[in-house]
Structures are given as structure tokens and as C-alpha cells.
Amino acid sequence: MTSCPFLGALFSVPSSPCASDIQGTLTVAHASPGITNRLCDSAARAGESGGVGAAGSAGLVLASIRRDSAIQVLCTVLGMGCSFALYSLMGHFLGPSPLGVWAATSAACSMVFAFGSLGIDAIACREMAKAPEDSGRIFGSALAMRLTVTFPLVIILTVVLIGSLRLPRTFWQFAVTYVAYAGLATLSGLIGKAFQARQRFGLQLVPILFYGLLSILVIFPMLAKGRGITSVVTATAAGQFLGVVVGLSLLRRLVEIRPRWIWSEWKWLLRESYPLAISMPFLAAYVRIDSVMLAAMKGTASVGLYNSGYTILMACGGLMAAVQSAIFPSLSRLYAESREAAHYVFLRGLRWMALAGTFVFGLSLVAPRMILRLLFGPKFLQAVFSFQVLMLAALFLFLNNTCGIALTAVGQQRWAPRITIAGLGLNVILNLLLIPRLDYLGSSYATLATEIFVLVFAYLALRPHWRRVTTPVLKLTRAADPE
């Protein structure tokens, strides 16, 4: 497994099992002069205020980020909890075969729908955070593109992919309904990004709770009465639809919701988001490439042992991605207003991630056997050292994802394909070299080495954009945070 340094910016709160950031001022000026003029005015005011103003701004933003991070983590836990409850109920009442059909269809939809977003959500979130007064126009363009272009295209591709799974004819009604459900989940993701951009993280809780509780309360009695998987997905899609309606109703208070079919705005969004879109197929490949290679070279038992640690790593990464998604809109806005303040917030974000990663790694050193025995059982105790190596990789995963959201926040998402492809290539080479000698432990070492490489690559790509910072970081740190 390797990470993508842009995950925190690309993905919003998972509200379903399927849902699992300009080239600079000149590009923005060419695409949207109105936005640029206001951003330049804000930057000028920030420059006149000096380092103390930047420090005060950074301090206020950090307080907001702490609050938003807590809300975002809660949203993530609730979303994951609803998904887990749904899977648990289906497994209990329907058995392995229908659950397998659901899981296979979900995997197919996840891959295609992730690519089908074209990175538009992250770019819309960034621009709405930088220019709140233009939020309605930006959201309207993103919504129109999703409804008119990406949504129909992704539905066609998903139906074709599901067709290749050779599902029984009795499950085709389920498959079509699931595609509609997955499409509604992507709209929910776009709405979530709009809430984040407008610093209204708490409002995300309402549609998530509405969708989750409604779905579970309806699905449980349905399953108890012997209803099948098609009835379950129909109820889930209805719950997702109502969740989207609730989300749009809340968003109307903050943003004008009117789809905009204007080609110049679409072209600008695509020009900004295409590097993220290009990264998607490579991301889908390398997130699981080590497990595929391990299965081919050593068998499924090795994959199972390796994935005991990998599953924990991904769960920790999901929680940290929630924190990073809280940092992203604030960092985007600050970079346009005061690079000194943005630099300080970025460094503080790295500090938070480093502390979290150190804690996770330390926990794996203190109680690895207890953790593996509790979560997976005694048969996985032989994977203790592999688990510890992966928990060390978590430290670098947290840091390089933070660098990734910062790159997108400062308009350098063009680095996404280069970093993703380079990380994939290195991971494949290391797995080819290490798996024959070290089995699943070799994959763990490959993951650790790739995380370190990606962190260095992302940081070096980001570093030039802080060179013009004039206020000494130490002085700004003391002014913003007297600790």
C-alpha cells in the first residue's frame, strides 16, 4: 500500500460505503477577473497589516480548525458507523452471497465514481473558501458539470463495469438502483465540500444523521421480515436522496443553488482539476497493488496477515484525513490573504500530524499483541513486526497527506500525477524485490519506504511557494500562539 498525498483534499465525509484538492494568480485572473480583484484587495490589506495582523489571523484560524476538526472526525465516525451497521445487518440476515454481490458492486462503483468526480469537488471547495462572495457561481458551475457531464458518463461506465461482474439476472434491478444510490452519494460529497468551504462543518452532521438513521431504522425491520437485497438498496437510495434534499435545503441559506451551464466556467474548472483527475486511475491502482502482488507471489494467507496492519493504517488515515479536510479551506483562504499566516497554519498542521503519527507508532510498540489479538484474533500475532512497521509508516502518511492538501491549496495540484505515478512505480519495484525474500514483511517495508519518498517529493514541490514569506516564522509563531 502507498498513500496519495492529495486524499485529504479529494474526499469528503463518507456518507455511504461507496464514498470512501491555479496555476497561480495569473490563471485565476484569466478565468475569473472578479475573483482576482477581490483576492488582490484582501492580499493588499493583509500586507499593510504586517506580521502582527497575520499572526492574529493565524491564531483565529487555528482555533476554528480545532473546532472544525473535531466536527469532521465526528462526521467521519458517524459515516463509517452507518456503513458498518448496514454491512453487519446484511451479513446477519442475508448471508455471504448477497453481501458479496453488494461488496462487488460497491467496489466497482467506488472506482468509477472516484474518477468521475474529475477532482472538481476539491477545486470548488478551494475557490469557494478563497472567495465566499462568489460561492454561488462556483458551486453552480460544479453542480451543473456534475449533473450534465460527469454523472451520466459515470453511470454508463459503471453499468458496463457491473455487467462484467456477471451478476444473475435477478440482481440487475439491484445493480441499477445501486448506481443511482452511488450517484446521489457523490452529490452529497459535493454538498459536503460546500459546507466545508463556507466553514459550516457542523451542518454536515444533519444530512449524515438523517440519511444514516433513516436508512438503518427502515432497513432493519425490512430484513427482519425477509426482504432481499434489492429492497435494501431501494431503501438506502431513498434515504440518500432525502439526505441530499436536506443538505441542499441547509446549503441554500449559505449559497445560491442554481446550476450554471457556462462553458468558460466549466473550462476553467476542468483546467484546474484535470491533474487530480489524471491521478485517480493511478491512485486506484496503487492503493491495493501490494496486496495483489503479495497474493500472486505468496498466497492469500500472507495477504491476510499483511492486511491486519493495513486495515488499522487505513482507519487511522481516514481519521486524519478528516482533520486535513478541516485545514484545507482555511489554508486556501489564508494563502490568498496572507502567506505568513498560511505558512504558520501549515506548520502547525504538520505538528499535529507528527504528534498523531508518533502516538500511533508508540501505541504499536507498547501493546502490539493486545491490539492484534483484540481486533483480529490470536492467529495474527505472528504479524506483530509487520504491524509495527506499518504504524511507523502512518507517521509519514499523515505528513505527506498534509503536504498534499497544501499543494492543492496553493494552486499546485499539477504535481499530483507526478507524485502519484512516482510513488506507484517505487512501490511496485520495492515489492518485486522484497516480497520473494521477506514475504508480507517485505510489503510493509515497501510501504514505509514509499511513504518517506512521497513525503520528501511533496515537501520539495511545496517548499518554493513559501520562499516569499517575509515575516520570520518564529516571530509569527510567538505572536499567534503564546504557548
Task: Tell me the helix content.
Answer: over 70%
Strand content: under 5%
Number of strands: 0
Number of helices in the DSSP assignment: 18
Low-confidence stretches: 5-53, 468-483
Give me the secondary-structure topology.
Layout: H1 7-10, H2 25-31, H3 33-94, H4 96-116, H5 120-130, H6 135-163, H7 172-197, H8 205-224, H9 229-251, H10 263-286, H11 289-298, H12 300-337, H13 339-366, H14 368-376, H15 384-409, H16 415-438, H17 440-462, H18 473-480
Your description of this structure?
The chain has 483 residues and is an all-alpha fold. 81% of the residues lie in helices and 0% in strands. Mean pLDDT is 75; it is low at 5-53 and 468-483.
Give the gist of this structure.
With 483 residues, the chain is mainly alpha-helical.
Tags for this model:
single chain, 483 residues, mainly alpha, 18 helices
